[in-house]
Amino acid sequence: VQLQASGGGLVQAGGSLRLSCAASGRTFSTYGMGWFRQAPGKQRELVAGITRAAMTTCADYVKGRFTISRVNAENTAVYYCAAENGGTYYRNPKLYDYWGQGTLVTVSS
Question: Residue 38 — pLDDT band, cuts 50, 70, 90?
Answer without folding.
Answer: very high
